[in-house]
């Protein structure tokens, strides 16, 4: 390891060592297979006998129906399948009641072999690392190694989700896996990771066919290897059988595989290949986000029909029993058909791809091309909604939002990507779209909605819900007035966000012309509105989608009568009205879009009012009638989109605590602080009045959630309001992290996702308001004078603590931007301490409150803190990551600095565990402990930790320590923390029921300290496996990114 840390010695080995490389590789390969066999044999002895007695095969429904996890204590996913029906901890105090049913199973027998195995693996990896060849000898094979590595991780994640994953979250886990690996290997190979994608690229002329065939070999072999490895490591499970899901026929399964594989390839072509959408001189940073989330759209929509493979490597890998020649080859054929359709549509929609130079710059799409783009986007959105409804999905708004986001990113530069008559009406009223274009857009959007209904019709007839009528009408217990008002309000939000993020002038501080967040914001409005008011109105927020639902209810009515035509007319009218109101409000909040010299003082107050109004409105609906599982996510999306929409005018505070923190830090004058606070509180109060009038007599009071006391609730509010304000200060106010001449584009994403971290972690304790405007609004029945005032005091205290920590971590922020200095070692260690503390605390509180979204919440915490502190310490927050960065050389982190980081990380984990113990003492709550899942062996748990810790460390190396691509003009990476945090989403949900999904020795040590007697038996093996995973990540990085070492070797 020492030679790897010395820049002068990297990859420079004596000739004798080079001569031994082939023999060493053969030895390592043989020993690796031996170890896998030993693990399989060892774990069979450690598994529950009952797990081995079943001989039934589980059909692959990869992303919706998947297998249920075993009960486990203190881990990142629900304890059992029955927990999936329990409400998640979030703003609803009644829904945050804590389940006290936890597993009492032990990890099984632990032998000396259990501890020696990871030691042997680590030793082998060190030997292999020290015998790595020089970079020039790896350069030619690097793209194929990258495709193998990325596809292996993807298929391994899918396999784990099928075998032991959390059914409601599998699509999200697989999507995150795909996204992070595309970001990691995209600069090397293009990040195809899918034979169908490579085929589409070959048809489009982007890849030569020789490379396509090479990629196919790497991808398919990786699929077989990953599926085999998963089956060997996770032993004692029901065999997997790839086939259409009954009662659907093969024709139905092949149809949806063709459609959504086509959508996936189409998004790849438009987001990653198009010269206009991803210019070689100014590339976008959203391409992998758009590609990955196609899996969320299709996974929830058709996972219960075909299994939602969309990838021949996945299909053939999971058909391992037939070596891919059972259903796997049939799936592959139709997936390639989908790729062919995608290539044809791409050629029709982008004829400019044949142009060069000024001809390309001057190109304007024809009206027919723009209308085709609007048709395709609306069709994909409407079909996704309908199939989610037919299949009874638990995540219809998330799936629909993903479909909308992907198609907006893909076609935004063609037609503007309205995909919604209400949005088109808003754009016409704002002057961004001509009346002629608007009328044509609305016509094709309506036609697309009808076409989607006709495609969904036979699938509805064949589905188990075939006798059920899905009518367009208000939810149970609500009248048309309440439903119509809900549709108007959230259609207004959607249209307003489109105007504010997609039709405004590029800020001077934005170096790149590429807007990384506009599609994310537009799609997230559907997530927020769908989960908030789905129970009231259905949450369509789109006349074309409403029409699609209505048409399907007419052509496939089931046993109940369809809704009358009056509902579609009424809903569509109110949705269009919401779009027109959005255009009017936009003129108030963004006056410089119409008069560049006008003052924005009053407009800033309008922005704070509107943004806080939308945030409190969403929180109110979610806490009263919204989805308990997704409530915190919906509120986080509302905050994120409104921060992005209002930040260019007012800064997007939307929270008196945030304004207070900015005042304390000197970044906002106190007169502005007072004005903003008044606007925010008034906006919150108006929102409370509106949702109370709509939902009367339903209302939830603000109160500590039993069995927690007010002291616990106040502490939770202090901690997570501090986190929120700290992220705002570091991501939006810092001169170093967001300089005036190159502002970052991730600030709204980081700020919004704090609510996902805190909402699931603290929602079952205090309600997780984190905002005085929300606290006072929810406490409306007491005019904010009951629990509202203690909550406000706690939140302001949290803001004060955030300002102090901000100054401690960034002592030079008061200096001029050009005088900023490199952070001191003390500041870096404090940065690492804070990041690990927040991460471990979030993991612990999710476990204590029996949250079903622990991995999602932990990933959000990690992502937010990396965005906040990545430029201070690198944002490792994990001893395994620190080891990987040190071992990767290139002077990225010296051993001395790494040692300081690890000490800070372990100390932070211990303090977070002590803090969790305060909450754990409140009553009969789950006990935190580090152990494999019930019926799982330590070696099994350790091996899956090994794999996903390797993935996490590899992604860190690939996205956060590499040279900036020439096509990326901004020095501020939009995606680096998103990719790193998403590794926890993928790994946590995929293997949480097996190992807990910690992927971090500091978190593991913290959990172990909470229950030493029960945890120490697993601690050492888990830590060793995780550190070994870091070493494997370095080896994989050296093989896939050899150019990172070329300059060092020459030196």
Quickly list its features.
1051 residues, mainly alpha
Layout of secondary structure:
Elements: H1 2-5, H2 15-19, H3 21-46, E1 58-59, H4 112-130, H5 135-138, H6 142-164, H7 170-189, H8 195-204, H9 209-233, E2 240-241, H10 250-273, H11 287-292, H12 294-302, H13 312-318, H14 327-349, H15 357-361, H16 367-391, H17 396-415, H18 421-430, H19 435-462, H20 480-502, H21 518-537, H22 543-555, H23 565-589, H24 601-624, H25 631-650, H26 656-665, H27 670-695, H28 710-733, H29 747-762, H30 772-778, H31 788-809, H32 825-848, H33 854-873, H34 879-887, H35 895-920, H36 938-960, H37 976-995, H38 1001-1010, H39 1012-1040, H40 1043-1050
Parallel strand pairs: 1-2
Helix pairs in contact: 3-4, 3-36, 4-39, 6-7, 6-9, 6-13, 6-37, 7-12, 7-36, 7-37, 8-9, 8-10, 8-14, 9-13, 10-12, 10-14, 10-17, 12-16, 12-17, 13-14, 16-17, 16-19, 16-22, 17-21, 18-19, 18-20, 18-23, 19-22, 20-21, 20-23, 20-25, 21-24, 21-25, 22-23, 24-25, 24-27, 24-30, 25-29, 26-27, 26-28, ...
